[in-house]
Design goal:
Blueprint lengths: L2 H8 L17 H17 L5 E10 L8 E2 L7 E10 L4 E6 L11 H10 L8 E4 L6 H9 L3 E5 L20 E5 L5 E6 L3 E6 L6 E7 L5 E5 H21 L10 H24 L9 H12 L31 H11 L2
Parallel strand pairs: 1-5, 5-6
Antiparallel strand pairs: 1-3, 2-3, 3-4, 6-9, 7-8, 8-9, 10-11
Helix pairs in contact: 2-6, 5-6
Amino acid sequence: MPRNRFELILRFWHFSDNLKAPVDDRIYKVRGLIERLVKNYQSVMEPGEYMAIDESMVPFRGRLKFRQYIPGKAHKYGVKLFKICEVNGYTHDVNVYAGKNQVNGKGLACRVVLELSNPFLNAGRTIVTDNFYTSLPLANELLDNNTHLIGTLRSNRIRLPEIFKTKLRPGEIIGRENINGIVVAKWHDKRDVSMMSTKHNINMVETGKKNRKNEPILKPQIILDYNAGKAGIDLSDQLSSYSSPVRKSIRWYHKVATEVLLGTSVVNALIVYNMNKPSDKKISITKFREMLVDELLELDQSQIAISDSPTTSTKRGRKTNHKFEESAERDNQCFNKNHI
């Protein structure tokens, strides 16, 4: 198929009927697709004990009412996705942020965590969040549903104890616990780190590493469990960024659909594939994408000739060596002209 024809067909790539779109639903164009994918995600794998919630960005710089700007992300402008993942990077749910006027009742952070974790509550699991989501009302809500919360904390949150005004020396930790078992702590490493947990105390444990003075490095158990649980989101985003299928487009729903369908879904499929393989048979995300392409195109690998020798190509601007060669015919013509 020619490229121009493929791009022409791609312009009409839709996932819902525009004539049936509700007036107050900004993400109607991709809602049906995401709901089907999420249903498949949750039917394939049962989540473990630790689950992390964070946001990801789908790059988009076009005109869009709910386009977001997050300076700390690799793609600063785009559509924000809220995801819940487990430690191995498997994504169980995705939610597209459609703007503030789509939020009702509770605050955005609390509402997002409760919506994404709703199918996994009342099972003794632990939700890991960063300081954007972690709060005392959220911890109480999760405890009422037999679910724990671990996360970093902003010191200016409401209804927190006065421990955050205490100055600490490197390595010191201070904390408070309320009647519900919620621990709020402040630890000074290279800087002050505020944290909250519903299942820990403020005990320090050895990390297994040593500093320059050959002394064991100590950290709070809250921090160790937070880092281990939060790694799932970062791993999912990292794998999705390799050989990303997202391409330039003026249609935001094309980019969101491509990221969820060919990014997150492929990463989930890779994780399930590698779980059923021995350690020496696991493959990378790039190799897995190549295998998917071969299957979709119904290519037979035995009939594909692959040359081991590297291919060479002539690059524009490469200098060539010019040689001057003597021509007897040209010399004779010049000699005759001079003697006429």
